[in-house]
Design a protein that fits this description.
eleven-stranded antiparallel beta barrel; 6% helix; elongated; 353 residues; Porin; two-stranded antiparallel ribbon; mainly beta
Length: 353
C-alpha cells in the first residue's frame, strides 16, 4: 500500500501533538505563553496587536578571577613594592587599582506590534546604571589599599527588529529574530575619583553605557507546547559591525538557552532555564585606557564562558503578564583577570491589547 507524503505529514503532526488537547490559541494564552524572564524574542502578536513591557535586571559581580581561580583583593593588585601591579598572561596591570565588586542595573522599555500574524516588530530603550567598587594599588602611593567607587548611568544602546514566524502548528513554533542595535549609549566619560580629584581619566570598558557600534543581533527560537508543560531552545547573538570612534569593538556574544515551564494553574507557571554564554575579547583598543592602570582596560581580558541557571515564575492575571527569575552563575571560565559574576535578578510586567 502506498502512503502519500501528505498523509505521512498529517500522521507525524498528530503523533507529535497528541498530548495537546486544547486549541492552538487557547493553549498559547496560558501562563507559560512567554519564555522565562531572561529570554526575549520568543513570541509573536496577532496583526494589529500591541504590547508594552517594563523589564528590570540587576546583575551582581564580586571578587576577581583568572580563568576558574578566584583571587583575593590583595592578590588582584599584586604584592607591594616595585614593579607595581600584577602580571597576568604576560600583561602587567592593576598598578592603579583593581575592581572588587560591581552592580549593573538595567531598566528597559519594550514595545511590540503585530505587523501581520507572522511578523512582529519591536523596539527596546535601555537605561543602564553601573556602580563599581575598587581597591587602590601601588601607584596610589600612601593611599594603597583604600577603596573608592565609580558610577555611570544614562541611555544605553537601542534595540529594534522583527520576529518572523518560520513554522507553527498546534504545538510547535519556530521564530527567527532579525534584530539589531544602534549606538545611542555614551562610550566615553571621565572621572577624577580614583586620583582623589586631581586628574581625570576615562571610565574603563565595563563602566561604559553602550558599544559605540551598530550591532547585528540575529537569533532563532524553537518552542513546544504540551498539555501541562512547555519548553524551548533559543540561540541568540550580538555581533558588532566594525569599530567605534574610540578605535575598538566590543565582544561578539553567543547565548544558547533551553528551558521548561510547568503549569501549576492556567494563570500560574514555574520554569527552569539553562544558559550557556560565550564572549570573545575586544577587537582594537581605546588609546586613552592604559592596560597597566586596571585590568578592566585590558581588551584581551573581556572574553570567557559562563553557565547560568534561571529559576522563574510567570503569572497571567487580568490581562497583565508578570515574569520573574533569579539567575545564579554556577560555572565560569574567564579570559585573563576579571570580576566574576555571582547572580542576576530579572523581572518584567507587560500588557497586550
Amino acid at each position: 500500500m502506498k502512503i502519500s507524503r501528505s498523509t505521512l505529514t498529517a500522521v507525524l503532526s498528530l503523533v507529535l501533538c497528541s498530548a495537546v488537547a486544547t486549541a492552538d490559541d487557547a493553549r498559547r494564552s496560558l501562563a507559560d505563553k512567554h519564555a522565562p524572564a531572561g529570554i526575549m524574542g520568543d513570541h509573536l502578536h496577532e496583526q494589529g496587536e500591541w504590547m508594552v513591557e517594563y523589564r528590570y535586571m540587576n546583575m551582581y559581580m564580586e571578587d576577581n578571577r583568572i580563568g576558574e581561580s578566584r583571587l583575593s583583593d590583595q592578590e588582584a593588585i599584586g604584592p607591594p613594592g616595585p614593579p607595581p601591579g600584577i602580571v597576568v598572561d604576560g600583561i602587567r596591570t592593576n598598578a592603579g587599582a583593581a575592581p572588587t565588586q560591581m552592580t549593573m542595573e538595567m531598566h528597559m522599555m519594550h514595545l511590540m506590534y503585530g505587523a501581520s500574524d507572522d511578523v512582529t516588530l519591536y523596539t527596546m530603550v535601555m537605561l543602564p546604571s553601573l556602580t563599581m567598587d575598587h581597591i587602590r594599588g601601588d601607584m596610589a602611593g600612601p593611599m594603597r589599599g583604600t577603596d573608592f567607587t565609580t558610577h555611570n548611568s544614562g541611555f544605553g544602546d537601542t534595540a529594534f527588529g522583527a520576529l518572523i514566524r518560520l513554522h507553527s502548528n498546534d504545538c510547535h513554533d519556530l521564530i527567527f529574530n532579525l534584530g539589531c542595535s544602534v549606538p545611542t549609549g555614551d562610550i566615553y566619560r571621565e572621572t577624577s575619583i580614583p586620583s582623589g580629584g586631581a586628574v581625570s581619566q576615562p571610565l574603563p570598558y565595563p563602566m561604559r553605557l553602550g558599544s559605540g557600534t551598530f550591532n547585528a543581533r540575529p537569533g532563532l527560537t524553537y518552542k513546544r507546547y504540551r498539555d501541562w508543560w512547555s519548553g524551548g531552545i533559543q540561540f541568540q547573538t550580538d555581533l558588532p559591525i566594525g569599530k567605534n570612534y574610540r578605535g575598538y569593538s566590543v565582544s561578539n556574544e553567543f547565548r544558547l538557552n533551553s528551558w521548561t515551564s510547568v503549569l501549576l494553574k492556567d494563570y500560574w507557571a514555574v520554569s527552569l532555564r539553562g544558559e550557556h554564554l560565550w564572549r570573545t575579547s575586544y577587537d582594537g583598543a581605546d588609546p586613552a585606557t592604559p592596560d597597566t592602570m586596571i585590568a578592566t582596560n585590558v581588551e584581551s581580558f573581556r572574553g570567557g564562558y559562563w553557565y547560568n541557571i534561571g529559576i522563574g515564575t510567570q503569572l497571567n492575571l487580568k490581562g497583565y503578564y508578570l515574569n520573574a527569575e533569579i539567575v545564579p552563575t554556577i560555572a565560569q571560565d574567564l579570559d585573563g583577570l576579571q570580576l566574576e559574576t555571582d547572580f542576576s535578578v530579572i523581572a518584567s510586567i507587560s500588557k497586550a491589547w
